[in-house]
Amino acid sequence: MYKTLIVDDREIFLLELKRMHVWGETSGFEISGKANNGKKALDLLRQISYDLVITDIRMPIIDGLQLLHEIKNENLCPCVILLSEYSEFQYARQGIVFGAFDYLIKPAREKELIPLLKRVKKYLEAIPSSNPALLTSSDMEEETWSYPESEEKMLIHYFKEKDLTLISLFQTTLEHIYEAMKDNLIKADLMIKKLYHNIISLVYNEFPWLPNYTHIHYFEKIDYIHEGNSDTFKAFYVRKITYLIHFIIKLAPPVHDNTLKEIITYILDHPESDLKLKVLAARFFINNTYLSNTFFTKAGIHFNDYITIIKMSRAEYLFKYSDQKIYEISYRLGYKDINYFSKQFKKIYGLSPTEYRTIEFRDYQI
To answer: What is the pLDDT of residues 241-259, one digit of tens each?
Structure first.
């Protein structure tokens, strides 16, 4: 039986939800906890594991959107449904972008909740064999609207080719979806969210070295949006896609030489290895000077400068997602001189490792 936490500041709505004939064998869900504000809900979620949260949007202390934001940030629950009134339509749309599975208009009705719980169950059953961060409610929905498969394939093609044209194509695709579905903006939000997540997932499959340098959850992290309108949502998705293509081009400059492609892939797969020019030249049975000259001519960057970018990009990732000390990361990446390592990091990021980590720590606080 899947465990559900219900959250609402008005006791009458909590009672109405509990009295509905949708729990137990009917749906496979049971109400295992309740809270009357977002703070209490967070406290419960940090202590007890729940499969589903159903929360009101408007609440004191911590509202439903802030609660959703923290749930996603801390990975506290795989599925959140928002309850909203008609007047809160823009907040509901914002919740979809934040990562809500779906929303219900208050007062919730059994005939709407039962099919929604069926979709949630299907979603939860899929999690063990999928990446839950990249699943959305639209994946589970019986779609009567046309998903832009051809545009998705084209966008992935441009990613593979490392072609910046994809930014304008992606933007145009979003505009077309919103225009075509202007009478049902929530459906448009869900479709665009699905398109975005599918692209991110497929790009990570296409470039398996990406997790060495940027966590896929970065693309789930919402820059807190206060306006619930299509332009704001489009700007968020476009900003993330733009970052990803530029990041890929920076770490894997487009080259047409097959040997050079193999060398770059090896470097990206092994950022903590000894990546000196002579070591790689020997590994790939080519001349040192030839590799150095060819790399600059065809990749547009000096070999040593490229290696520094790769090493520092890996360092940045470790500063964000590991508890290792600066000197440990320095040694791990092959830098015995910590001062030199720090100098190289600052040259690229404009901050020393200590300064960078302090800012990151502050930014990730709740």
So the answer is: 999 999 999 999 999 999 9
